[in-house]
Design goal:
Length: 166
């Protein structure tokens, strides 16, 4: 690591601290040449393979933007969206793979988004899963209703859970 002050080609780590969620490490470094100190932050690199085959660095901001679009006009705060994106990133990093495909990210967003707002979930799912007919919406809504019934503890509707959008 170059010293950012004098460009000396080496530096010494004087302190390391892992963030609470374990996803980053901050290192305090000192330049042996000019003696000045600086901090570096280390994160595991995560890349995304898009449908086109192009690879790009993972960006939490992109999740935020996609989810925000789906939540337009819904009673969902920026904090809710930021928290959702953080959860999604933690889940994805938790898989331990350095390369994710865009499809996997979409799938990971669907669960927490459904808990956050069902209308936003339907919007997101319709774009992401490329709904192309009313039947697709119908199936997704049926599945949402069935899930809600199960959560409410109603009996007899649990078998509806097998209905899923194709
Ligand atoms: Zn230096």
């Amino acid at each position: 690591m170059h010293c950012p002050f004098c460009r000396h080609s080496d530096s010494r780590v004087v302190d390391s601290r892992t963030s609470d969620d374990g996803s980053t490490i901050r290192r305090r470094r000192q330049c042996p040449e000019c003696q000045r100190r600086f901090t570096t932050i280390e994160t595991a690199s995560l890349s995304v393979v898009k449908r086109s085959g192009v690879t790009e660095p993972f960006s939490r901001e992109k999740i935020v933007n996609g989810v925000r679009k789906a939540c337009q006009g819904r009673p969902v705060s920026e904090d809710d969206i930021a928290l959702l994106a953080q959860r999604v990133e933690e889940t994805l990093r938790g898989t331990g793979s350095a390369e994710l495909d865009a499809h996997e990210i979409g799938l990971t967003i669907l669960g927490p988004l459904r808990e956050l707002d069902e209308v936003a979930y339907l919007r997101f799912a319709s774009v992401y899963q490329a709904f192309d007919s009313l039947e697709d919406f119908e199936a997704a809504i049926t599945s949402l209703r069935a899930r809600r019934a199960v959560e409410d503890g109603e009996d007899g509707e649990a078998d509806l859970l097998v209905v899923r959008p194709s």
